[in-house]
Here is the input.
Amino acid sequence: MNKGLISGLVLLVIGLVCGVLLAFVNSITAPIIKDNADKLVLESLGEVYDGASNYTLDEVEGSNNVDKLFFLKDKTSGDTVAIIYSVQAEGYQSTISMLIAVEVNSSDEFVVAGYKVVSQGETSGIGDKIVGYDFNMENEVITNMAAFDGVAGASFSTTAVRTCFEAVGARVAADFGGAN
Amino acid sequence: MSISALISLAFTALIIENVILTQFLGICPFLGVSKKRSSAVGMGMAVVAVILLAGIITWTLYHYVLSPLKMEYMQTIVFILVIAALVQMVELIVKKISPALYKALGIYLPLITTNCAVLGVALLNIRKDFGFAEMLVYSLFIPLGFLLVITIFSMLREKIEMAPVPKAFKGTPIALVVAAILAMIFSRFGGLI
Amino acid sequence: MNQKQNFFKGIIKENPLFVTILGTCPSLAITTSLENAIGMGIAVFFVLVLSNLIISLITVNPKMKELVKPVRIPVYIVVIATLVTIVEMVLHAFLVDLYNSLGVFIPLIVVNCIILGRAEAFASDNKPLDSVVDGMGMAVGYTLALMSISFFRELLGRGLITIWGEKSVNPIQLNLVPIFEFIGIEPINMFLQPVGAFLTFGFILAVLAAIANKKSAKMASEVKQA
Here is the structure.
């Protein structure tokens, strides 16, 4: 048989063995790598939803203003306990990113369980008051924007935060229908 | 991505994140093939051609073959084989088309397979999550930065060869000290963007 | 040559970084802390010893060696790249901090000339056991060289030496900042930047060259006297 062909075959066999080996190692390490990455995300989600790290995580890509949805699921039953939305909106001079956690209360309504402005670059002393501000949305139904209370004197930044809540409300309504 | 962002990426790749002086990729040829200006320029040109081609091919392979097949973990092995094959092919093509160019670049081409800048740029294109345009700019300006620095460095080394250097510093040690001073100069460009 | 000589030649006489000046890229890039140097050293140790073993096993049979010869470089590359990818995945899974700080230099072990160089120059012509010992010696020599560069950079640049657990709650560290304060100088941040990498490496090479020059001068004078 042709010598070059045999050499090529030897290379091919070695390549195949290596490929199988890699696939095997990958199947062992990939879940651990994902767990570690999830743990980091869950830790940061803990700031808007208490005890987030006790759940398993399911990430879904969003659309429009909502760029990601994090489903927190019970470790044993697998039921979704809460959904945390990562939302963005344009403020006065920067993009404002928020995390908004939504859960279902005892009367089957979708209510805000927590929220946080994650990043912003608004005017210091005016617009940046939105960080840590109480917008009066805690435990309110997510679509009930009447409860929303903005920062006085910072209308652009407030509107951006409002847009964030509205976007989540619209998304919840689209996914689960109606207000409840 | 806007044009201005691409221009700023090009400048960053060329000067601020210079492949040799701040990312430490391609140090072997930087020290090995910089004793004469002509060979430094030849090596630099060959590196530009190979990195640009390798960048385009590996990026395309990753996004249209490996990623859909969920075989991202094969990237290192696939990329290095692509680079090795590419270097051989470029060598053959250049030999056929332009003997003059082959004479100038030929001896540097086989060395490029183990130039870590080539595999480095291919991997960084993926790690930095670049789109096609960004990848193209990055894969062009990173090796241009290599060409720029290795050319400057070879001119300095030609002078240093004649200078009275302490015996212990002769050769590589003084070259590294010169590189350190160059790195100091380049690090100051960081404030430009 | 016995096994002991075979092992120690990689550490002193043929030290891959300080004598043959191979594998310079990571030696400049990741030597900002001792921990990184040790981590890189362990990764290289694993890859180099196993690649030497596998390649010498492939080529130990003369018939097989003849077959592999025309495609030997691709074969070496495939073997090395596989080992490197395994190391990368294991580090990513179990030592995330180290994985992040070594970054792209883990997959770049593939093109570290030391590994391909030992495969071609030693493992393909020697028995498996000899190749493994050679790989161990070379890897330990490389690790020691990396550690000596990072020792000076971290000491001068930060005033402390991290042995392990840089980002953990209780890192094992040797804090020398009080000594710096006592002398009245601050740590020189420049040594953590690229400048410091080139400078430290250059000075270590110069010191080694000075020692070698002295030795050869002494030997020459001894020869004269005799």
